[in-house]
Amino acid sequence: MLSRTADSLFWLARYIERAENVARILTVGHRMASLAYSLGDAGNEWHSTLRAAGCEDGFFGKYEIVEAEAVIAYMVFDADNPSSVFSCLETARRNARAVRTALTVDMWEALNQTWMRLRDLDPAAIIAHGLIDFLDWVKERSLLFNGAYANTMLRNDAFFFTRLGTFLERADSTARLLDVKYHVLLPRDEEVGGALDYYQWQAILRSVSALRSYHWIYHDRLQPWLIAELLLLRPEMPRSLRACMEQIARHLDLLADAYGGKRGECHRLSGEMYARLRFGRIEDIFQSGLHEFLVAFLDQTARLGGEISRLYLM
Amino acid sequence: MRLRVRHETSYHYDAPVMAMSQLLRLAPRSHDGQRVLSWQVRAVPGRPLPFFIDGFGNIVHCHAINHPHRAVTILVAGEVETAAMDGVVRGTAEPLPPPFFLRETKLTAAGPAIVDFARGIGGDASALTVLHALMRAVGERVAYRPGTTDAATAAAEALTRGAGVCQDHAHIFIAAARARGIPARYVGGYLWTGMAPEHDQASHAWAEAFVPDLGWVGFDPSNGVCPTEAYIRTSVGLDYLAAAPARGIRRGDAAETLAVTVAVTPGDQ
Amino acid sequence: MARPEGELPAAGQGTDLSGFDEMHHAGACRAPYAMIRDWLEDLPPDLLRRKHEEAELLFRRVGVTFAVYAEGGNPERTIPFDIIPRVLDADEWMFLERGLRQRVRALNAFLVDIYQGREILRAGRIPEALILMNAGFRPEMQDFMPVHGAYTHIAGIDIVRLGPREFCVLEDNCRVPSGASYMLENREATMRLFPGLLGRHRVASVSHYPEDLLDTLRSVAPPHCPGEPTVALLTPGAFNSAYYEHSFLADEMGVEIVEGADLFIEDNIVFMRTTEGPRRIDVLYRRVDDDFLDPLTFRPDSTLGVPGLFGAYRAGNVALANAVGAGIADDKSVYPYVPEMIRFYLGEAPLLANVPTFDCGRAEDLAYVLAHLDALVVKEARGSGGYGMLIGPQASRAERDVFAARLRACPGDYIAQPTLALSTCPTYVESGIAPRHVDLRPFVLVGKEIRIVPGGLTRVALREGSLVVNSSQGGGTKDTWVLDA
Fold first, then answer.
1. Which residue among A91, C225, C235, C250 has its CA within the 20 to 30 Å range from the CA of A178?
2. Fold (topology level) of C223-317
3. In chain C, what residues touch A260 (CB-CB under 8 Å)?
4. The domain containing residue A129 runs over which residues?
5. Alpha-carbon distance A85 to A138, whole Å?
6. Are residues B139 and B70 located together in one domain of the fold?
7. Do C129 and B56 touch (CB under 8 A)?
8. Using a CB-CB distance cutoff of 8 angstroms, which residues of chain C are in contact with residue B96?
9. What residue in C sits closest to A3 (Cα-Cα)?
């Protein structure tokens, strides 16, 4: 297929995934800020929200003070912010439109209807009384799109590139989320964390729809190191770094098979990243530093994206 | 006489260029007064370049590099046997009819200044006399001064400035001739100046006009003469843009350093 | 040189602009429309309205859009689809098809000639300056012979109907005519909205158009192209007004839709960048105008094209459809000479009439046009889209004055024609069903052979009394039925 088509599918999936992740992070941020408000720490929560969505630098290029209205405006509507929910959906649709013929009708309709609805929405009304509903809607649209492509696309290279986009973005998002909150996961002297810690742990799990999954897997009250393990290393957890890397490595292999065995640096790198997660132990990761681990992972994810692009998308 | 040409163009970039593509009209064809003995246009290093014949009958070499690179060198080398024809051009392919060369282009748009200039020249004399007078008038009106104009300067602007290079002289001549109802066209080529080799004036441009009974006749307003055996024709067109010796485009953000050496020397007899 | 004669059937002239009613004639329903009448009579009263709304939804959902630059509004609006089909019977179509084949053969013969020996100019049948000074004449194409002598591979010939047996060519579109996708989508819509209606009638199918198009494109591949030719569609990109059509046709043909940046030239051969490495392209169905095809040969500022493409083309390593330079054949100042081309190249009498045309560049024509502005339609010689147009009888005094001034300033840029009373078809409007003016654009495919799918795109002026069918001016489209014999 055309390199540009593959590139558009890859980014289409990435931006849909990003829209969903930003919506999730905002939903939790909103909840935490209202809880934290009673504890007098709302500003800090909004700051974390910005960092988790990778919007920190752009935000401070425009605003000086972190306030709910500004953060929401920037992360939901701002056209200057390439990761705002609006921008993500707009970019996704633009990519989709450029490769219409590579999409199934269901994929296109899911996107196009999202976009048409989006154009008619009134930001003021959303902020005034419908932010959470709106963010839920964004999540729904992303789930619809993901379902549409999972259920209707041919299992060929087009599908593999779309998959790569979804999982690379998801891995990036989970790693970022964890890194913003890594300090609340660190072992400390007290046996039990305070109320705010507990909410923070809950929030992390909620951001990736994993609160219930946690209980299913661990049958235990929330423990920070288990939360870290769940999101880093558990294969059952669909948003864990391991699960994402497994998918990425697998789909890169499928691409190599489809293209007569040709492989590149992206195959080696993804294999290495996956192996580290598959055979890694959470104790060792804490030992050598969770933050350092996540920073290195984010760096590798970025490199992996570049290598995939170099081999296939240019 | 025999003329040998060696023309080397090197581009160096301060950052990698992703891709480049160019068309080169640097190959003469044989006709009366000009016989091509040998000629090559090639990239260095590289094979001889592929080519096509364009609508004006020019040989156009195509050069493309589709991977990152920091330097490109093009080598043109060959030998031509020329004879004095008093500027008369015969035995060329001439795919397009003379009246076509009345068509105005952006670079040769007449405008009031040129119409005015053209009207005052040669009176009711024959076309040939008018053209000779026009050739002299352009040379007198517009001083040869490199750096005052560029490849995008139109005839009218160069006339107003009163300075330019051979390209501008040719454009003004062409625009004025057409304004007088005489078909005219742009010619690119090489010139043996008798001066030290590696002088960049060896790459030259002049004009041709269509004179009833004689056919196409060359006029070089920069030197005030009709082309002699010191001239080698490599391209014709409505204007510089159509006959450009090199027209290129590149992808990548880099500053370019251009090095050109042209040597036209009398060959072995 | 003789001026091209008027070949207008008498029926269209005069001040009555109501037009020939294709459904009701001489107080009775014409035979081809008999079942449309029965169908309309049997329909429950509000069904049409519901179907009309359903159609709108359908087109929006599928995303059949057409952007109109000059309007500030929604860049992705749909062209209104009128749910009542337009019907031609087998005889009418047979006549049209013969005329179309003849006309397009002559247009291609003209293009081959005009870029080679120019016999028609030597013979004095067309003024030399009209061609040589025309921007549509591309010197770059001189002495180039496309495979099978096909210059306009896809021609859209705009036809108006003036009477029961009177069809006229209003203009030829030889460069990049659009609309075939609407022809196909309209038929699809009829099938979805009124399942069974088509089945009850013997309507010729149009759905093989993409196959015919692909066959046509393959048939003009360079002779030494290795193996099965690879075809791709070159689009200016997703922001082009006709992008929907580009992606639709590429999809239906099963070929890649490429942009300039997807292609590169190596050794004078065209390649596209794919995930598996470079892949050679043999035929480009290009929907990019000549000017933008190659910045090294045409407009240097074009970013839509491919640097070096024209060299690969002239070297015979890739076919372009339509060929570069075809615009000289559909220039409105050349249009009056098409009947002459038919006589000159084919030795035949033209089957389809031309509309008499005044070339405002001629002093005597200009004088006549200025004196009769209230009866004439004035058009730009090199425009399309219906913007630079004056419909004399429907224009205000002030509008006519504006045009008169433009005419005096640049007479050569305009032509004028009598105002034609386009035929009408029953059309769904606010108030129910009413006659609206229509034209027809059949698509003629030229490769190794000529193929035409029966019918074409019917465009309808939705405003009462309007004679402008352009989609950019509030026109809509209709499904076009050709009944089998």
1. A91
2. Rossmann fold (3.40.50)
3. 276
4. 1-153
5. 8
6. no
7. no
8. 139, 142
9. C274
Contact partners, residue C401, CB within 8 Å, separation at least 6: none
| Same domain flag for A168 and A295 | yes
State the CATH number of the domain containing residue B70.
Answer: 2.60.40.2250
Tokens 């179907």, residue?
Answer: C51
| B162 and B92 assigned to the same domain | yes
- Which residues does chain C have within 8 Å of residue A2's beta carbon, measured at their own beta carbons? 256, 258, 262, 272-275
The CATH number given to whatever domain includes residue B191 is 3.10.620.30
Per-residue three-class SS string for A84-121:
CHHHHHHHHHHHHHHCHHHCCHHHHHHHHHHHHHHHHC
pLDDT tens, position by position, B108-162: 999 899 999 999 898 888 999 999 999 999 999 999 988 889 889 999 999 999 9
Q: Which of A100, A104, A164 should one mutate to test binding to chain C, selecting the residue with the greatest count of C CBs within 10 A?
A: A100
Cβ contact (<8 Å) for C143 and B53? yes
Indicate if A301 and A162 belong to the same structural domain: yes
Interface of chain B against chain C, CB under 8 Å? Answer: 19, 21-23, 50-57, 60, 62, 64, 66, 95-97, 99-100, 102-103, 238, 241-242, 247-249
Domain that holds residue B95: 88-243
Q: What is the ipTM of this complex?
A: 0.93
Q: How many domains does chain A have?
A: 2
pLDDT of amino acid A45? 82
Beta bridge partners of B44: B73
Does C449 score more than 80 pLDDT? yes
Domain end, chosen from A90, A124, A153, is at A153
Write the CB contacts of C310 (distance below 8 Å, at least 6 apart in sequence).
C140, C293, C294, C296, C297, C298, C324
Do the chains contact at C296 and B54, CB–CB below 8 Å?
no
| Domain boundaries of chain C, sorted by first residue | 223-317
- Co-location of B93 and B64 in the same domain: no
Question: Is there a single domain that holds both residue B186 and residue B60?
Answer: no
* Angstroms from C234 CA to nearest CA on chain A: 13
What is the DSSP secondary structure assignment for residue C335, as one 8-state letter?
A: G
Single pTM value for the model? 0.86
CA distance A264 to A256: 9
